[in-house]
Amino acid sequence: MKKNWIYVLVFFVFASCNSEKKKDILSFKDPTIIDGAEGSIIKRIESAVIIPEDFHEDLWVTPTLVTIPGNPIICELVARTTDRKGADKHTIAHYFRTDDFFETLQPVEQPIAKDWNRIGISRKDLIPNEQLGILIPENMGHTQYAEYLDLGGDTILQAFTKKNKNSKQNIVQSLTAKVENGKYKLLHISNSWTNATGRGLYEPQIAEYENKFFMTARAEDGFGYLLVSHDRGKTWDEPVRWRWDNGEEIPMDQTMTKLIAHSDGLVFVYTRKRDDNTQTFRHRAPLHVADFDTETLTLKRNTERIIVPNKGLAVGNFWVWTISPEESYVVTAEWPRDGREANGDIWLSKIKWNAPNKKVADDGSKFDH
Question: pLDDT band at 339, cuts 50/70/90?
Answer without folding.
Answer: confident
